[in-house]
Amino acid sequence: MTVLSRACSRCIAQAATSSSARLGTTSRALSSSSTRLSSPPADPKAIAEAFLSKFSKGQTFVRRQLLDANQIRLFSLTLNRAHLWPTSSVSSTKTLEEAEPVQGTPIPPAYHLCYFTPAQLPGILGLDGTDASFNPDAPFTRRMWAGGSCHWPGADPNAVHQALLVVGDTVTEVTRVLSCEPKVIGKTGESMLVVGVEKEFRNGKDELCVLDRRNWVFRVALDPSKPAPLVPKPKELSQAELDKSVEGKLWREYSRDEATLFRFSGLTFNAHRIHYDKPWATEVEGHRNVVVHGPMNLIAMLDLWRDEASVFRGVGEGSMQDDEAVYYPQMIEYRATSPVYGREPYRVMMNKEAVDKKEAETRVVSNDGTVCMKGTVTDWSLSK
After folding, report:
1. CA–CA dist 250, 354 (Å, integer)
2. What digits encode the pLDDT tens for the residues 287-345?
């Protein structure tokens, strides 16, 4: 086992090259990028094999961190949630604007993403601001968070003891590389590499609380000196079409502004410029505006599910916090399929009957009808 000290972190970064994205965007966002590549064609298979050879001994990289109350407080407020957990009596509980969560408060599903953020000196970051941890060699340095899964093995509501990440605990993150596979984007014929990474999060008692598997897509780097064609904005659905699209569904609508994206970037220490630098996002990477973080959409799907599932099950009485509904899924599998853009409304939705099912299909759908993220939330004990 390797402890990820400052020196070790630097070695990993220098063994890789700069990346260009840390969220789930898709091939359609830069479908014409093949004319703007910064490097000549390379052998994806050879680069994948060279990347895996760096981790062929199965080494792990370990970090430890205190889950402090202020970080999770600011993170929840940035997501416009005044409480970490849905409450049955808001009047009896102070909001996060008024007070930090007390020690021992469980961290909601996927909110662990505000901890264990990238830790690199500025000179090691890519030109686009992204960190270079666990990257393949050039030219495959443009990273996108394409999907993955999160499991909460210690959150079984029927267990005598639950192993959860909680505020005030010192937690250990264990990271390992699982895979690196060459792929081809069907629409463009462009080569890419798909890297699988696994992160374990263990509490102070060394109990596994979260198993977080992430799939990163690495595409060929773009040449910033060559202008990018913008992604056209599709026509939004009419109000009648929007109303019809949510019939029989539980849903919420969002339109993320630049301030929200900037705060989310700061709290996750994500310096990728597509989230806050509009000229970079539009002129270099070809987006039509700044891009909403993929993890923000993942959390939105989980927030919708846990709020509705908690109400349906009557969770709250006798839970760890007065009047708070503490309820976790068993797991979620998710995949980003298209970017979500700042100041463009979109909806997170799932079928109403899904709260009474073992598996709940969740979707992030732009108001022009584009499906931007898909997820399947698995409950603990309900029948299919």
Report:
1. 9
2. 999 999 999 999 999 999 999 987 776 654 434 443 457 889 999 999 999 999 999 99
Q: How far apart are CA 291 and CA 21, in angstroms?
A: 10
Burial annotation 232-246 (CB, 10 A radius, 16+ → b, else e): eeeeebeeeebeeee
Give the DSSP per-residue string, 132-194.
Answer: -TT--STTEEEEEEEEEEEE-TT--TTSSS----BTT-EEEEEEEEEEEEEEE-TTT--EEEE
In the DSSP assignment, the letter for residue 291 is: B
Q: Are 260 and 78 in contact (CB under 8 A)?
A: yes
Q: Give the count of beta carbons closer than 10 Å to the beta carbon of residue 111.
A: 21
At residue 206, the 3 state secondary structure works out as coil
Global pTM reads 0.86
Cα separation, 262 vs 291, whole angstroms: 11
Domain ranges within the chain, ordered by starting residue: 44-378
> Rounded to an integer, what distance in angstroms lies between the CA atom of residue 253 and that of residue 240?
15
- Can you name the CATH fold of 44-378? Thiol Ester Dehydrase; Chain A (3.10.129)
What is the rounded radius of gyration, in angstroms, for the C-alpha atoms of the chain? 21
